[in-house]
Amino acid sequence: MRKEEVIVVGGGVVGAAIAFGAAKAGAPVTLLDQGDIANRASRDNFGLVWAQSKGDGFPRYARWSREAIDHWKPLADELMELTGVDVDLQQSGGFWVGFSEKEMRARQTMLEGLRNTGPGVPYQMMDHAELKRHLPAIGPKVAGGSWCPLDGHVNPLKHDLPLPAQREAPWRPGDQWALLKLLAGSR
Ligand SMILES: Cc1cc2nc3c(=O)[nH]c(=O)nc-3n(C[C@H](O)[C@H](O)[C@H](O)COP(=O)(O)OP(=O)(O)OC[C@H]3O[C@@H](n4cnc5c(N)ncnc54)[C@H](O)[C@@H]3O)c2cc1C
After folding, report:
1. Residues 63 and 21 reside in one and the same domain
2. pLDDT higher for 172 or 134?
3. Could you tell me if 179 and 112 lie in one domain?
4. 37 touches ligand 1 (CB under 6 Å)
5. Cβ of residue 39 lying under 6 Å from some atom of ligand 1
């Protein structure tokens, strides 16, 4: 093993992203995964790329989460260019729904605390009538909600595919380092 070689253990979205970044920085990277057939968290999640409420009480996590929002679009574009896989990123905003005035007050206090995190987390509180204009299906028990224009989502069944595999073929554990080796070797 050469001194500067990077070995990443775990080929979920986190390990694959670290390996991808290290390979792009020029390190020879080997990404190892145990290679079972379970989907794991990286594929069995909601796909939310969420800013509002992330990192309440944890300033560094809040700042990281906020900065990650800005990294997603360039990353999605880069993955599309490299692999042809569209991760279906949409950042069109997201709603939270509250069921009492107490919940609404707590929400506003929390979002106000996050507002100036990193590049900023904008939000808007909405009462029942205003929220219903956006989400007509809400019922009478909904007190209101919050809206953040930065929130969005990706397709979790696709977002870890382009990292390990350089094609749209079904994912196989053995594919995981192919793209990474290619990127490292291309520098
Ligand atoms: C139900 C649910 C919903 C979620 N919704 C969201 C959401 O909307 N938005 C969001 O940002 N996050 C969400 N998350 C969190 C997110 O899914 C995880 O933070 C993320 O997927 C973690 O990725 P990972 O790569 O660290 O872990 P994993 O996806 O678990 O990957 C770990 C990898 O390591 C491999 N591995 C483990 N042990 C070894 C070993 N000893 N040797 C070799 N390989 C090994 C495994 O096979 C696996 O491939 C959700 C999580 C869950 C459970």
Report:
1. no
2. 134
3. no
4. no
5. no
